[in-house]
Amino acid sequence: TTIDLDHMQWLGPDRDSIGREKAGIARAGHPVVVGEDDPPQGLLSALATVGADVERAGQAFSVHARDGQTLWSHSDGAAFALPDLALDAPCQQANAASAVAALHALRARLPWSPQAMSEGLRHAHLRGRLQRLGHAPERVVDVAHNPQAARVLAQWLDEHPVAGRVHAVFGAMADKDVRGVLEALDGRIACWHLGGLDGVTLRGLAVAALAERCKDVLPDATFDLHADIPAAWHAAVEQARVDDMIVAFGSFFVVAEVLND
Questions:
Q1: Residue 64: enclosing H or E segment and its boundaries?
Q2: Helix (H, G, I), strand (E, B) or coil at 132
Q3: pTM assigned to the model
Q4: What order do you get walking across the sheet with 79-82 strand by strand?
Q5: Please, what's the b/e burial string for 183-208 (b: 16 or more CB within 10 A of its CB; e: otherwise)?
Q6: What is the full DSSP assignment across 76-97?
Q7: Where are the alpha helices (DSSP H) in 55-206?
Q8: Which stretches of the chain drop beneath a pLDDT of 50?
Q9: With contact defined as beta carbons under 8 Å apart, do 27 and 3 qualify?
Q10: What is the pLDDT of residue 69?
């Protein structure tokens, strides 16, 4: 799937370095699906060195609209109509296209079943990925914890406007790019409810340290500070009106705290 900057202390300082690490899964003469339209050159060079059979988005396969349908097609002539997806994030169509490409690459070993693929894609879901918890106010949790995921969340918010305000419940790990996450969401959040994660993991930022980072990025924003995520979530629920939206994000730990509350 897509490659962006995360876990850089292990994977490397840039997309090329990270791409080379990701290429470690490839094997000579075997297919590897590259589901990104603009993959880092480090990934492509490493795959060429290995001698993998690269199935690349935009070249070997692509997705486009035709006759009111979203059509997946392959350079060998194979085609498949993508259904409406249960997964709601804007990136999920590209992910679905990569999954279909993987099944296409395995068609000699697994049956190529458009009906089964359609059923699977139509019903596939994953907890914590833009998961709706209720309405009036609308409540959503998302595990977005890096700038790339935050950009996807920002795009989703733009595509799902509410009549009222958007409240954010936010917590973060100490090693994450808090600046990049906040910059991606700038202008979309009316009320910030910060919660500490130091009580659930050694990597978690305490709320005071998180607030310092947030205020450095958004000096004009108002941040309400809470010792933990459940307290931040309850405060957001109490303040929100029926036409508002509450979005809890920033870490898998944030989502877990909300879902387990």
A1: strand 61-66
A2: strand
A3: 0.82
A4: 61-66, 69-74, 79-82
A5: ebbeeebebbbbbbbbebeeebbbbe
A6: TS-EEEE---S--STTHHHHHH
A7: 92-105, 114-123, 147-159, 178-185
A8: none
A9: no
A10: 84
